[in-house]
Amino acid sequence: MLNNIKFPLYVITHPLDGFYTMKYEKKGKMSIAIINIILLWLSYSINRQYAGFTVNKVDPLTLNTLMDLIAVVTLYILWCSANWSVTTLMDGEGKLKDIAMATSYSLTPLIMALIPATIFGNVVADNEEAFYYLIIGVAFTWFLLLMFVGIMTVHNYSLTKTIATFIITGISMLIIIFLILLTFTLIQQIYLFMRSIYIEIIFRA
Amino acid sequence: MKRPVALLVGFIIFIFSFSSFGANVPYESYTYDFRFNVVPSPAPYVPIKSVDGNSLGVGSFQRPEDMHVTEDGEIFILDTGNNRIVVFDNKWNHVETISKFINDGEEDTFNNPHGIYVTKKGDIYIADTDNRRIVALTRKGDLIKVIADPKSELFPENFIFAPLKVCVDYADRVFVIARNVLQGIMNFDEEGDFFGYVGTIKVNVSLTDIIWRSLSTKEQRQRQQLFVPTEFTNMDIDSGGFIYTTNIDNFSNETVKRLNPSGEDVLRRPVNAPVRGDHYYTHIGRYGGPSRFVDIIVRDNRMYSVLDSRRGRIFTYDHQGNLLYIFGGVGTQTGTFRRPVAIDELDENLIVLDRDLGEVIIFETTNYGSYINTAIALQHEGRDEETAKFWSKVLKLNANFELAYVGVGKALLADGNNKEAMKYFKIGMDQKYYSIAFKRYRNEVLKANLGYVLTALMVLLICFIVFKIFKNKIVLRRKCENA
């Protein structure tokens, strides 16, 4: 159990090795991945609500922890499914589970940085806020690099192919959003059509 | 018997207390907060009466276009349709009417004049639009000079000089906004010779415009709208010779400018809240679109009020560009406008000239408005403590006014009450001052607790060293025993 918890820390410090053992030696656990996402949601929400006034311009009226959860989970699922659908067509070796784990494990630096950054954000004044953004910026870059290495290792891709996959994944995420919106609009149209027929019949009968 | 009387008196007081709450104000006053939310506020000014030509005994005004109030409180109304200037004293008694003057021994009149300005010396400058000239008269009505038909290489051919608004600085330099002159405000020297333009408005061409234009054919391009700067609408001049000017450049954040003598815009605008009137409006309908500023008045302590003819609102800002209050509205009730064209200040009151109604509407400050004005005046003099008193009075009447919180916070900060000041700056959404207060508070806390923290650290360190030594000894002993 302790090894499972320690494993993400190993992955973020030794990404090439870590993602390899995660996939091929089955060291990764989906439960840890899900816990990671939940932790990310919590730390993101805490950051939005409690970061000091100097670095936090969020309108308190817009704070909604449940909406944050939806945002984090939706983005995660969107990314994973988009990447999976792209890589299955591009000879990727990773399964959906591998992608989900790799992505979630690479989020670890962000999770670890957000709460200290929030605490730090409460003791900085003007001019010092650069350090706050530095913490978050470093964590975010680290996360991006990790995800890059993770996707590369999991699918056994070359460097250029990974870059191409990332770009195509971005586009396919947009397409998925578009399709979802389209479906919703169509369903709404059909519903309204049915409803007007129903009303028509009610009034005629 | 006593009880019903008391009840009745109570009831009457109850009823009257409502009517004195300004329920008669025909418009809604508001401000914008840090996030551009519309925040209702008490009325800073209420209309007390409106006067027209008939009630003043001079015959009704025909399309009056401009108005000027001197420092002595003399009111000059430019009655455009009747080609005359009507002068009143500050109690609205008719002083005189100027409709003609002697020019080269002959009697001369005005033709559709649009702008008037009266200097400190009392000289009257009139933008005599359809006579294509500026006329300068002494207060007695004698002609000083006529500025007509200016000559310059800068003008296009067939240039027609049709002045609309006029303004004069302390050195008798004349500034003129003329019809179809897009290069800026025309500047004439004290002799009346054309000197140059000041304050050209930048043209904003968006990326889509450029792409659209490059895709269209020559014929199409000819029929498209030209990218020309918008015209200035009005101006006022402050005691330092800075020109405050308004224009109707839609979707720009620089519809109000403060031009220094070399023509650069030096108006102070807060980073997150540009001086542009309404931040939030509908885009359709008669009253839709951004605010359309038609006049500006510089007030004491470098406050200025701008008049929006689109929705009939008056926006007042302090010298740093902070929005103080908004009031006024278009409508048909008394106290609302149909087509406001000019704004000026008469003693403590603001007066607005309505062209279509031919009326001047007089607004009087309420307690709320005068507290803000006083606070700004005291702040300008640097009397922080008294300023805070007035800001807290403002807060009693309007607990949603961010600027007042910042004002109180500044006084607390000066007092050294940093923690309380932080609270006020946070409510007032002023991160800069919050930071200052926070830094001081942080130092305070550090100073108070540094002793304890260092002691604790020392104790921990000693414990750690002692522990290490003991551990080594134990390890050594074990090794010895094993050996």
Secondary-structure blueprint of this entry?
The complex is a heterodimer of chains A (about 200) and B (about 475).
Chain A: H1 2-13, H2 15-24, H3 30-50, H4 65-89, H5 96-106, H6 108-121, H7 129-155, H8 159-204
Helix pairs in contact in A: 1-2, 2-7, 3-4, 3-5, 3-6, 4-5, 4-8, 5-7, 6-7
Chain B: H1 2-19, E1 30-32, E2 38-40, E3 45-52, E4 66-69, E5 75-79, E6 84-88, E7 94-98, E8 100-103, E9 106-109, E10 115-118, E11 124-128, E12 133-137, E13 143-148, E14 163-168, E15 174-178, E16 185-188, E17 194-198, H2 207-215, H3 218-223, E18 232-237, E19 243-247, E20 256-259, E21 293-298, E22 304-308, E23 313-317, E24 323-327, E25 340-346, E26 349-354, E27 359-365, H4 367-381, H5 384-397, H6 402-415, H7 418-427, H8 431-482
Antiparallel strand pairs in B: 1-2, 3-27, 4-5, 5-6, 6-7, 8-9, 10-11, 11-12, 12-13, 14-15, 15-16, 16-17, 18-19, 19-20, 21-22, 22-23, 23-24, 25-26, 26-27
Low-confidence region ranges of chain B: 18-22
Given helix and strand content, the structural type of chain A is mainly alpha
CATH superfamily of the domain at 44-365 in chain B: TolB, C-terminal domain
How helical, in percent, are the residues of chain B? 25-40%
How would you describe this structure to a colleague?
The complex is a heterodimer of chains A (205) and B (483). With 205 residues, chain A is an all-alpha fold. The longest helix of chain A has 46 residues, at 159-204. Chain A has helices spanning 2-13, 15-24, 30-50, 65-89, 96-106, 108-121, 129-155, 159-204. Chain A starts with a helix and ends with a helix. Chain A has one domain. In chain A, 81% of the residues lie in helices and 0% in strands. Chain B is α+β, with helices and mostly antiparallel strands and 483 residues long. Chain B has a domain at 44-365: 6 Propeller (Neuraminidase). Chain B has helices at residues 2-19, 207-215, 218-223, 367-381, 384-397, 402-415, 418-427, 431-482; strands at residues 30-32, 38-40, 45-52, 66-69, 75-79, 84-88, 94-98, 100-103, 106-109, 115-118, 124-128, 133-137, 143-148, 163-168, 174-178, 185-188, 194-198, 232-237, 243-247, 256-259, 293-298, 304-308, 313-317, 323-327, 340-346, 349-354, 359-365. Chain B has a four-stranded antiparallel sheet. Chain B has a four-stranded antiparallel sheet with strand order 4-5-6-7, with no helix packed on it. Chain B has a four-stranded antiparallel sheet with strand order 10-11-12-13, with no helix packed on it. The A-B interface holds A 53-54, 57, 59, 123, 125-127 and B 35, 426, 431-432, 434-436, 438-439, 442.
